[in-house]
């Protein structure tokens, strides 16, 4: 147990900010009606220059590969690569919705209390106010918010959700509003419609946006063909990012040019099994044909009963079919409108004659 001096030092440091600030009890208004786990993320502005390796160690919610993929960086980026101060880095983590209407990070990250720490300083200074001191105290059953111990391990409950939005799977991204931000700009930057962003966050007046306000931004993700019997069935990969799965033997990426299908490829080496071809010929990630009706050999999950096995399935590209149908419908509608206009013009001419 920490010495009395250490206890008093941390207690005193905690007391001052809690007396000065009337901080809200909750950092964000994330709701979670679903029960289960999923992948979420926060946009963390690093307070001081750091490295990707240090961020992995600080949050302990992901691997280096996971952090690089969430930010769309090359997978061979060195962990010692420097990150300038104030750079916003997307930190992925596992979200858990326990059925109480609130989503929180699944018992991670874990922070070790340092000398002179206080709960409010930890919430604001270390974790960029994505969490409040009250939430940390509740999550860790701390009765006296002014009394913590050097070396004490604290679970930091980051805000998140696993709910679908407008009937579609999304990755809920906690975004801290910066000076000069607008809901229009935030929505456009993240590929979300502004009405959806406003509704999800209960914003009735876009001009009421405050610096430091935490918003729930529902990032669109690529549709996958992963079976619901696979351990990674709820893999969520937003536009411009990638993720490793199947024990790092499969790399899946997402592009806004084809939200209809997650693009996956086998990782060579590392003792990974060979991904079986589809229909005996088409390899994982390969396509046959173009446009409507073209097929692709897609990743459909993995199993690991006795040894790791990769599964694939043949999927048909329906995007072009839908686009073509929409185009034909628009063309037909245009022709009908032109015919109607011409008919009325003829009637007008007849009247004048």
Order of helices and strands: HEEHHEEEEHHEEEHHEEEEEEEH
Give the helix level as a range of percent.
25-40%
Strand order of the largest sheet: 8-5-4-1-9-10
- Largest beta-sheet details: 6 strands, mixed
Instruction: Round the Cα radius of gyration to an integer and report it.
Output: 25 Å
What is the approximate shape? globular
Describe the structure.
- With 353 residues, the protein is an alpha+beta fold.
- The chain has eight helices and 16 strands.
- The strands form five sheets. Strands 8-5-4-1-9-10 form a six-stranded mixed beta sheet.
- A hairpin with a 4-residue loop joins β4 and β5.
- α4 packs across α5.
- The longest helix is centred in the last third of the chain and has 34 residues.
- The termini are far apart.
- The N terminus is likely disordered.
């Amino acid at each position: 147990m920490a010495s009395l001096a250490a206890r008093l030092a941390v207690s005193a440091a905690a007391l001052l900010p809690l007396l000065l600030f009337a901080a809200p009890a909750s950092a964000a208004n994330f709701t979670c009606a679903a029960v289960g786990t999923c992948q979420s993320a926060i946009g963390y502005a690093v307070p001081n220059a750091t490295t990707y390796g240090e961020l992995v160690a600080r949050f302990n919610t992901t691997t280096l590969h996971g952090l690089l993929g969430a930010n769309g960086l090359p997978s061979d980026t060195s962990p010692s690569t420097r990150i300038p101060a104030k750079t916003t880095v997307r930190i992925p983590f596992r979200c858990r919705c326990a059925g109480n209407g609130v989503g929180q990070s699944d018992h991670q990250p874990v922070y070790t209390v340092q000398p002179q720490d206080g709960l409010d300083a930890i919430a604001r200074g270390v974790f960029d106010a994505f969490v409040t001191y009250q939430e940390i105290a509740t999550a860790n059953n701390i009765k006296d918010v002014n009394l913590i111990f050097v070396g004490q391990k604290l679970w930091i409950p980051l805000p998140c959700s696993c709910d679908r939005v407008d009937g579609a799977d999304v990755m809920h991204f906690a975004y801290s509003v910066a000076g000069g931000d607008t809901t229009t700009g935030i929505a456009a930057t993240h590929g979300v419609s502004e009405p959806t962003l406003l509704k999800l966050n209960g914003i009735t007046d876009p001009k009421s946006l405050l610096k430091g306000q935490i918003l729930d931004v529902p990032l669109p993700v690529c549709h996958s063909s992963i079976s619901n019997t696979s351990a990674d069935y709820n893999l969520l990969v937003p536009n411009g990012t990638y993720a490793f799965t199947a024990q790092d033997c499969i790399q899946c990426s997402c592009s806004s040019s084809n939200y209809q299908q997650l693009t996956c490829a086998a990782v060579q080496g590392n003792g990974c099994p060979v991904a079986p071809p589809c229909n005996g010929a088409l390899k994982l990630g390969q396509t046959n044909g173009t446009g409507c009706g073209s097929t692709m050999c897609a990743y459909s999950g993995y199993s690991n009963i006795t040894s790791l096995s990769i599964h694939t399935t043949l999927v048909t590209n329906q995007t072009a079919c839908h686009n073509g149908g929409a185009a034909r419908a628009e063309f037909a509608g245009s022709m009908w409108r032109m015919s109607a206009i011409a008919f009325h013009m003829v009637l007008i001419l007849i009247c004048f004659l």
